[in-house]
Amino acid sequence: MNSANSIKANQVILLLIVLFISAIFFAMIRYFLMVIVLAAIFSALSMPVFHRFDHWFRGRKSLSAAMTMLTLFLIVFIPLAVLLSVVVSQAIKISSVAVPWIQAQFHEPAAFNEYLRSLPFYAELEVYRENILQKAVELADRTGTVLFANISSFTYSAVNDLFLLFIFLYTMFFFLRDGKEILEKVLSYSPLTETDQHRLLGKFLSVTRATIKGSMVIGVVQGSLAGLALHFAGIESAIFWGAIMTVVSVVPIIGSALIWIPAVIYLAAAGQYPQAIGVLLFCVLIVGQIDNILRPILVGRDTQMHALLIFFGTLGGIGLFGAFGFIIGPIIAALFMTVWEMYGETFSSFLSEIKKENAE
Asked: What CA–CA distance (Å, rounded) separates 257 from 255?
């Protein structure tokens, strides 16, 4: 009896030590956790390419991993870099033109008053004209300071992002090369059955694949069509705004509307009513419906998740994890749904007995 108690005490102590050291370790690498998770996700998605190279190179895993990453670099990163350079150049053009114009308009009350009078709802704004002018002048005075602060922090941000990119690529290389062994080692410590383990891994891969595929397709289609609409409406730098809409379209339902609704308001305020109505109708009837049609097909069908769960998973993921939360959020939502299904199946008899007892 004493021996059994001693063994149990040793197990408890060992468990506490494991939890304590693990907590310290995760606190130590918390800055890199998001990068590690993303490297694991993209490594899992790249495994078919890695296996193809591994077959060609007869089991040379390091060479196969390097060729897989080179292939992804040529297919994904170079086109993105080209597009990003165009977007940045147009963003610089917008800021160089918009900021001086705003400052000139706001520092000349007569010109600003004339602009207000041109608005169709001037009668409602006239009461607040002085307050609007005061806030506008303050905004114009602060614009230069804000831009300078952002430019000053850009250097540090760029260096930090390059460092994290290196960590991502370095981690992804080893996940590709040794991913199978790492995964088997991690799963060996899990108390779950092999069936449940494969079920969770299958859900993880299917949701990840569907989320990235669906978000990319929806984003490119919505951004391209809405960007063309803005271009034909006469708004400059349509490539820039189209790229922004491609990015924000990861948010279901409200994504691209964050850009084209202000564009419609701008066109209406400028007196270009036909263009404003045209952009509004096109984006509501065509661009907005793309999300409603394609997302259930590309994401919901593969993940077998309700649209509401996808919506809150995406929003919650972005709120908690930042930019890449649109990938991680739906994955967590899908795993949440799966573990509750596993709970219901495992404890079905117990739950049935409780229901019978309550019914009696």
From this structure: 5
| DSSP state, residue 251 | S
Domain boundaries, the chain: 1-176, 190-360
Q: Which residues contact residue 122 at a Cβ distance below 8 angstroms, ignoring those fewer than 6 apart? A: 116
Quote the distance between the C-alpha of residue 284 and its chain's center. 23
Q: For 60, list phi and psi in degrees, rounded to 5.
A: -80, 90
Angle among Cα 47, 53, 56 to the nearest 5 degrees reads 145
Per the document, the length of the chain is: 360
Rounded Cα distance, 27 and 14, in Å: 20
Q: pLDDT (tens digit, 9 = 90+) per residue, 136-187? A: 555 555 554 554 555 445 555 667 777 888 898 889 999 988 888 888 888 8
- Structural tokens at position 141: 């005075």
Cα 216 to Cα 113, 119, 229, 266, 324: the distances in Å are: 44, 38, 20, 28, 13
Mention every residue, 6+ apart, whose C-beta is less than 8 A from residue 279.
229, 230, 233, 260, 263, 264, 267
Name residue, tokens 């951004």: 223
Over 80: is that where the pLDDT of 130 sits?
no
**Cα-Cα-Cα-Cα dihedral sign, residues 293, 295, 297, 298:** positive
Residue 295 reports pLDDT greater than 60? yes
Decide: helix, strand or coil at residue 30: helix
DSSP3 helix / strand / coil % (the chain, rounded to 5): 90, 0, 10
Q: How far is CA 211 from CA 94, 217, 299, 310, 325, in A?
A: 32, 10, 6, 9, 11
CA dihedral of residues 235, 237, 240, 241 (deg, nearest 10): 0
